[in-house]
Amino acid sequence: MQSPQRPFSFELIAKRGHARAGVIHTPHGPVRTPIFMPVGTLGSVKSLDMADLHELQAEIILANTYHLFLRPGTDLIEQAGGIHKYINWQQPILTDSGGFQVFSLGVQSGQKSGKYNHVRIGADGVSFRAHHNGSSYFFSPERAIEIQRAIGADIIMTFDEAMSDDYSKEQATQSVGRTHQWAKQCFSYWQSQNRLSKYGDYQALFGIIQGGLFPDLRKKSASYISSLDFDGIAIGGETVGYNMAATQELMDWIRSLLPDHKPIYTMGLGRDPQDVIDATLAGADMFDCVGPTRLARNGSVYEGQFRMVDGQPAFVSSHKHGRINIGNQKYAHDFSVLNPGCDCYTCQSGYTRAYLHHLYCTRELSYYRLASIHNLRTMLRITDKLRKWITAHDETKQKTSAKTKK
User: Do 307 and 275 fall into the same domain?
Assistant: First the structure.
């Protein structure tokens, strides 16, 4: 079946070192990169509504294939006309394939060997028991794509085995082989469905690079995944985002093997503000993490400023990881806002640390919203500043070139 003309593309606008600024064009609108993507696991960014996300200037959000498959189920999402209509969000959405959630089920069972109490991995796919009720299910690569077609996101992911950092070389080699075979099956099935969702919209498919902490396997995976006609390239595994030093190192291993004309997505990265800066400098375009909202709910809010340090962007803060613990008693009488200069609703409206300390300690529900707004806006402001830093350098080069020609 002939594929339609793609209403999806990546436009590279500027580069500064390895850092890139661009625009991803999707059926539901453009996404400027680099971009942090808020995570809406069950079709909802926890404690926020869509008006909040618009106010935050979020351009794309994530939804979770595994969780949406279980609840509310793809039948209900289909009845609603797809995920965009179901959750009342008409901007771009990305769904993962469920591979990481399957990995997480195995981790929760206390085993990482590839044969988990709750998970069984085979050549054909993965059988598992749902975390909430123990029901048994099976995901094949084709099934993972079909579920994402029913959800209807703009960007979908291949089904992969999210590799643990403690895999032996033998285990890692077998795992990468499965990921590549499943990527090929996902690609073939996607093509057979004309690359469309069940609602007739083009769905971009991203392939996922695995390989753990083994340079040769990462390079092999980068070469193979890049050889297929995916719309974008993702970099997965336990390391990515969890260990930023290792993340930057593996980017160095594979950067020359990645296509310049496709977006690069580091999966699960963005717990702390400096993380997205480091990933951008390493050449990544897209990031997502539950960290900002999860940290907010647990009393950690970001504090610091985007600054240039030795000619490089950085998140400068007097606090470890650039965040404060609002539950600390010293904030009970602190009548300053969370972060002076922050343009989020929480700071601009004058909510003080003292008041947020009170809300947090008394578990008032409004705390979760106000803190989540602040943390997510911090991440989105950083990616916005990074875009401006990258494009300003490119504009300077163009002006210098023009003067030279004269």
Answer: no
Domain-ending residue, one of 288, 318, 352 = 288
Contact 84, 154 (CB under 8 A): no
Phi-psi group of 324: left, alpha or beta (phi > 0 → left; psi -120 to 50 → alpha; rest → beta)? beta
What is the CA angle 398-26-78, rounded to 5?
A: 170
- Whole-number Å distance between alpha carbons of 151 and 95: 8
Q: Give backbone dihedrals phi and psi of 13, rounded to 5 degrees, phi first.
A: -95, -40
At 113-152, the pLDDT tens digits run: 444 457 888 899 998 888 778 888 999 999 999 999 999 9
Cite the active site residues: 96, 288
Amino acid in the structure at residue 116: Y
Domain that holds residue 319: 301-394
pTM: 0.94
Is 406 part of a structural domain of the chain? no
Q: Is residue 270 left, alpha or beta, with left meaning phi > 0 and alpha meaning psi from -120 to 50?
A: left
Residue at 80 is within a domain: yes
Q: Please report whether residue 262 resides in a domain.
A: yes
Q: For residue 269, which of 283, 252, 281, 286 has the smallest C-alpha distance?
A: 286
Q: Whose CA is closest to 207, among 168, 177, 248, 235?
A: 235
Give rounded-to-5 percent helix, strand, coil for the chain: 45, 20, 35
What pLDDT, in 10s, does the model give residues 54-77?
999 999 999 999 999 999 999 999
- Measured in whole angstroms, the distance separating CA 156 from the mean position of its chain's CA atoms is 12
From the list 93, 57, 60, the residue with the least C-alpha distance to 381 is: 57
Place of tokens 């609703």: 345
